[in-house]
Amino acid sequence: MPIEYKKNRAVFRNEVSVEEAETLLEWLQDKPAAKVDLSALSYIHTAGLQVLMAAKTGIASWPKDAELRAWLEPALKSKT
Amino acid sequence: MSPLPMNPLLEQFLSEARDLLEVTGRKLLELEDAPGDQAILNELFRSVHTLKGNSGLFTFPEMTRVLHAGEDLLGMVRSGHTTYSRELADSLLEAMDFVGMLCGEIEDTGGIDASRSVAAQHMAEALRRQMPSQIPCDAAAVPSGSSAISPIAAIAQIPIEDSSAFMRSLLSAIPEAARMAALRQSRQGDQLHWIVYKPQRECFFHGDDPLNTARQTPGLLWGRILPSEPLPPLAELDTYSCVLAFHLLTAAPREELAEYCRYFSDQVEITAVSAQWLADEQRDDSTSTEAPMAGESFCQFSVDDRAVLERILATQRQILLLDDRPAWHAGRLKAVAAVLANLGQAAGDLSARSDIQAALNEALSTGRIALLVAWIDSHDSNIAEACFPCHPGSGDGIAATHAEGRADASPVPESGPTNAPAEDGINFGRRAEDNPNGPKSLKVDQAKVDRLMNLIGELVVSKNALPYLAERAESQYGVRELSRAIKGQYSIVNRIADEMQDAIMQVRMMAVSFVFQRFPRLVRDISRKLGKEVQLVLEGEQTEADKNIIESLADPLIHIVRNSLDHGLEPPEVRLAAGKPAIGKLTIRAAQEADRVTIEIVDDGKGIDPAEIKQKAYEKGIIDEATLERIGDREAINLIFAAGLSTASVVSDLSGRGVGMDVVRSAVEKINGTVLLESILGQGTTIRISLPLSMAVTQVMIVESDQQFFGVPMDHVVETVRIPRSAIRRIKHSQTAVLRGRIVPLKSLNALLGIAAIPRANSDDELAVLLVQAGNTELGLLVDGFQETIGVIQKPLNGFLSGLSAYSGSALMGDGSVLMILNIRELI
Question: DSSP string spanning B556-604?
Answer without folding.
Answer: HHHHHHHHIIIIISPPHHHHHHTTS-SSEEEEEEEEEETTEEEEEEEE-
